[in-house]
Structures are given as C-alpha cells and as structure tokens.
Amino acid sequence: MMMKLQRKHLHLSLFVALSLNILGSTQFVYAENDSTSTRSNVAFDSLASVQVQCFSGENELSVDQVITDELMQQAASRVAEERVAALSRLATAVPIDVVVRQKIIQTALQDTDPRVRGQAVYALVQQNCADSMLLLEQALDDSELSVRLMALDGLMGDDRSVALLKNALKDDEQAVRELAAVKLEGLFPTAETVK
Amino acid sequence: MKFTSVKTIISLVAGSVILTHSVFALAHNQAGSFTTGLAAAVDFYTVSCTDDGNGAPSYLEARVKDMTANSSKVNITIQKGTTNCNTNACARFSLDSADNDAGYSPLVKLTQGAGTYNLYVAHTAAGTDSYDVELHCKTATNVHTGTSTTSRQQQ
C-alpha cells in the first residue's frame, strides 16, 4: 500500500515537473508582439543554448574539495540569493576544478532567476572560457535589465565590444544607455563617441 | 522520569525564547536592491533609535554587504545632526569594496543620540546590485536598544 502511494506520488511529481518544464520553455519561446518593445523573451533561450567551455589558467589554484563541495551545494540551493552568492564567488579565483566551475556556470545561465543568470554572465567573463564574447552578445539581448547590465559590465575595449557598446546606446532602458555611454567615454574620451 | 521530562521541556522552551530574543536583538538588517540600475540611484531610509527598555540610545552603527559581484560597489552614508559636526561627526561613509564575498564593509558609528538617522545607500556604477545593511542603535554602554527602519526612497 505504501509502495503504491509512493509510486503515485512519484508519478505526480514527475508529471508536475514535466508540465512546468514545458510551460517554462513555451513561455520563453513566445515573442512579444508589442510594437513599443523591440525585446522578446527569445533571448532567454539564446543564453540556454550557449555551451560553456572553460580552461585552466596559468595560475590555477590547487583544488580544495571542501570548498568545491560547499560551492556546489550553494549553487544548487533553492534560495536564489544563495545561488547568486555562489556565482559571485566564481568571479574570483577559487580553488575548484575548472570542469566544476564550467558546470556551475552552464547551469546558472539557464536559471529562471535573472539575478542568477546575470551573475553567471559576469562570472563567466572572469574565467578563461571560450566564446565569452558570443555569450555577452546574446546576454545583451536578454529581456531582463540586470542581465544586460552585467553583459555590458563585461565588455572591454576590443572592436567587437565597442560595436556592442554603441549598439547598447539604443537600448530601451536608461541605465543600459548610460552605462554604455560611460564605458565608451572611458575608451574614447572625446565628444564624438556618443552618437 | 516524568519530572525530568517536564524540566527538560521547560529548559528547552526557555532556551529557545532567550535565543530567539538574542537573535532579534543582535540582527537588524535592511535588504534592498537598485532596481533601476542607474549609476546615480540612491535608496534612502530613516532609522529610528529609541529606548526599548534596554536604555537610551547613544549611537547608531551600520555596515553594508554588497551581494552582487560586478564593477559597481555598494556604499552607505549615515547622517544625523547639523551642528558641531567637526567635533562630533554628523555623517559617516562605508564602502564594501569586496562584493564577491560574504563579508561586510567596515563598521561605522555615529553618536548622535536618540532620534531619527538618515541612511543613504548608493553604488559606484550602474548595476542592479542587491545589498544588505546591518544596523544597530546602542546605548552608551554598547547595549542594543530600539532600532526601526523605514524606507523613504527606492531607486
């Protein structure tokens, strides 16, 4: 009898989880048809499709298993603030294996909480990872302000970054436009930069 | 046996009440975030220091934890009073320069007695930083006393 109940409970849980998953995907594939908004929710899928590949740096710290386990637990927490805290620690040199770091960031890029996604974007830029510019480009199209600001924060002075910064001057949000302008002014301290 | 069980239960309950009270007495936090993301965003709170039975408040101490790792760093300014500020400070500033850890900024203290203190939370660059301000009103003998916070402006 108990086994039957447990199985029923399991089936119900799986059904609910699957439904939520489908619902979540559907929600983010739908594009807004509002003429006043140029931003769609498809950007969330764009981040999810990015495959993170990170490499060990030259001054890699020796792996500390206690810290690794602690960070993995924190990154998997149900509390979004804990997940953000885990990602913020990854923005610095931490003694955990690069594969573990990569996995944490990859999972966080698909998080439903924009604060976690945004922090993952910033953390990834601080790592030695391939295609970080591609990720930044896609994160700049995210529907959430916090993610776009984090992406802008990660842009440097190379040609591609400058092009993205100039494009960000047309963003809907004042904070994004201002940050892009400030960064461009820092790179090209003349009146010609903001056009 | 029965007497011991009742005694144990009473001890546990009493212990929990004391512990809970201590936790509330020691931890007074104000969490927030810069939802506009603007570099010039300022969140403004008033902090009321009163005698809650533990004694007349002498000072307010505060520190902030920047909970978002990015280029922007969160800071606080506490302010009260407009006279003799050069001899007894009317304003103090504290910055959390390491936003990728669980640590707080340096603790700052303003000794302006009972009444309303102004707390300003700002950041150094654009970003939707989240923060946690820890603050306590204390007596001249460093005992925690009445501390209450009201949000006045959220940016």
Textual characterization of the structure:
The complex is a heterodimer of chains A (195) and B (155). In chain A, 63% of the residues lie in helices and 2% in strands. In chain A, helix 4 runs parallel beside helix 6 (114-126) and helix 5 runs antiparallel to helix 6 (114-126). Chain A contains ten helices and two strands. Chain A has a domain at 38-129: Alpha Horseshoe (Leucine-rich Repeat Variant), CATH 1.25.10. The relative contact order of chain A is 0.10. In chain A, strands 1-2 form a two-stranded antiparallel ribbon. The radius of gyration of chain A is 20 Å and the shape is globular. With 195 residues, chain A is mainly alpha-helical. Chain A has helices spanning 2-29, 42-49, 65-75, 80-89, 98-108, 114-126, 132-139, 145-154, 159-168, 174-187, and strands spanning 53-54, 129-130. Chain B is an alpha+beta fold and 155 residues long. Chain B has a single domain (28-153), classed as Jelly Rolls, CATH 2.60.120.380. Helices cover 16% and strands 41% of the residues of chain B. Chain B has one helix and nine strands; from the N terminus they run H-E-E-E-E-E-E-E-E-E. Chain B has one helix at 2-26, and strands at 29-33, 42-50, 59-66, 74-79, 91-95, 108-110, 115-123, 130-138, 144-153. In chain B, strands 1, 2, 3, 4, 5, 6, 7, 8 and 9 form a nine-stranded antiparallel β-sheet that branches. Chain B is globular and about 50 Å long. The relative contact order of chain B is 0.31.
**General shape of chain B:** globular
| CATH-level-4 superfamily name of the domain at 38-129 in chain A | Leucine-rich Repeat Variant
How many helices of chain B does DSSP assign?
1
The structure class of chain A reads mainly alpha
Order of helices and strands of chain B: HEEEEEEEEE
Number of separate strands of chain A: 2
CATH uppermost class of the domain at 38-129 in chain A: Mainly Alpha
Helix content of chain B: 10-25%
Radius of gyration of chain A: 20 Å
